[in-house]
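Students often ask why inverse folding is considered easier than folding. One informal answer: many sequences map to the same fold, so there is more than one right answer. In these notes we will look at a single instance of the problem. The structure comes first.
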C-alpha cells in the first residue's frame, strides 16, 4: 500500500471518529443529560444489592431465601443451568453484566412485581437494560426447564399415574388433571381498547393451566386476552385441540375404573364435554348430585391452591 492510500484511509478513520463524537454529543444534548452512564449505575458493585446478598449468603441464609424466593443451593443449580445461555461477552466499551446479576434481577422482578424504574435502584442496572435482561432471562428459564418441570404426560401409563394420585389423595377416579384460568395483571396495551379488560375490572392476560394431584403444572398456556372467558380460552389452546382429536393418548374406557371416561375436571365456566367434567347447576340438587359436586370441588381445589402457591412465591402472578 503506497503513502497516498494510507493517507486516504487515515482521513476516513478521522472523519468516522469525528462523526461518532458528533452523534454522541447530539444524543447527550437531545436527552438533556451530562453523562452517558450515571456514576451510581456504573459503580453498581458498590451501590447495588450484591454486597447485601453476599452478606446474606454468608450469615443469613433464611433472609437470602426470602429475597430470592429459593434457597442458595437451588439458586446455584439454576444459575449453572442458565449460565451458558445468559453469559455475554465483554467489549472495549464496558464489561458485560454477569449471569448471576441477570438472574437475581429477574427473580426479584418475578418475586415482587416491581417496575423496571423501581427495580433499577436496588440492582444498579438501568431500567432500559432491565427491559432487555428480564424478558430474555425468563425465556431462557422456560426453554431450559420446560422439559423436566412442565411435562405433559405422553403415554397411557403416565396418565394412569396421575389418575392414581387423584384417586388415592382426593378420591376422584379417572382424573387426569384440574383445569382453570388465572388473570394476570398487565398494563393496558396500546390501542387495544377493551380487549384485555376482564370481568374483575382490570386489564389482564389469562394463564390457563392443567394441574395434577400434587399441585404440579402439567400444561400451561398464557397470553389470551382477559375479556375472554375461561371456557373460551381453553378452546383456543393446543391442549384442547389434542383433547378433541384424540392425540393426548388417554386411557380408553376399558382401561379406566368403572369403565368410565378418562376426564379432566373444571368449574362452571367450562363446557361439559366427553373428557371434561363440571359441577351440576346449584338449582334442584338432590343428595347424589350434592355429593358429586362436593367431591368434584374437593379435587378441583388443587388448581386453585397451585395458583395461590405460585402467586405467593412470585407476586408478578398476582391477579
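Output (designed amino acids):
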Amino acid at each position: 500500500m503506497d503513502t497516498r492510500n494510507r493517507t486516504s484511509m487515515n482521513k476516513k478513520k478521522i472523519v468516522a471518529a469525528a462523526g461518532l463524537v458528533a452523534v454522541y454529543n447530539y444524543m447527550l444534548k437531545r436527552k438533556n443529560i451530562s453523562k452517558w452512564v450515571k456514576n451510581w449505575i456504573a459503580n453498581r458493585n458498590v451501590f447495588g444489592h450484591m454486597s447485601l446478598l453476599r452478606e446474606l449468603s454468608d450469615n443469613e441464609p433464611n433472609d437470602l431465601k426470602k429475597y430470592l424466593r429459593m434457597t442458595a443451593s437451588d439458586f446455584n443449580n439454576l444459575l449453572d443451568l442458565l449460565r451458558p445461555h445468559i453469559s455475554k461477552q465483554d467489549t472495549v466499551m464496558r464489561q458485560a453484566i454477569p449471569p448471576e446479576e441477570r438472574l437475581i434481577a429477574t427473580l426479584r422482578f418475578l418475586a415482587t412485581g416491581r417496575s423496571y424504574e423501581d427495580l433499577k435502584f436496588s440492582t444498579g442496572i438501568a431500567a432500559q437494560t432491565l427491559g432487555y435482561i428480564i424478558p430474555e432471562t425468563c425465556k431462557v428459564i422456560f426453554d431450559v426447564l420446560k422439559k423436566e418441570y412442565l411435562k405433559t404426560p405422553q403415554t397411557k401409563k403416565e396418565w394412569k399415574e396421575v389418575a392414581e394420585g387423584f384417586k388415592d389423595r382426593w378420591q376422584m377416579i379417572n382424573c387426569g388433571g384440574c383445569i382453570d384460568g388465572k388473570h394476570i395483571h398487565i398494563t393496558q396495551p396500546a390501542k387495544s381498547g377493551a380487549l384485555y379488560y376482564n370481568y374483575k375490572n382490570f386489564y389482564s392476560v389469562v394463564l390457563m393451566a392443567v394441574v395434577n394431584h400434587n399441585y404440579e403444572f402439567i400444561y400451561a398456556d398464557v397470553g389470551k386476552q382477559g375479556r375472554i372467558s375461561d371456557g373460551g380460552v381453553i378452546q383456543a389452546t393446543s391442549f384442547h385441540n389434542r383433547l378433541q382429536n384424540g392425540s393426548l393418548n388417554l386411557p380408553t374406557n376399558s382401561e379406566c375404573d368403572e369403565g368410565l371416561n378418562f376426564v379432566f375436571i373444571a368449574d362452571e365456566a367450562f363446557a361439559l364435554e366427553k373428557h371434561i367434567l363440571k359441577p351440576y347447576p346449584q338449582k334442584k340438587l338432590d343428595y347424589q348430585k350434592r355429593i358429586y359436586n362436593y367431591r368434584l370441588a374437593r379435587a378441583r381445589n388443587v388448581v386453585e391452591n397451585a395458583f395461590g402457591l405460585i402467586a405467593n412465591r412470585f407476586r408478578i402472578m398476582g391477579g
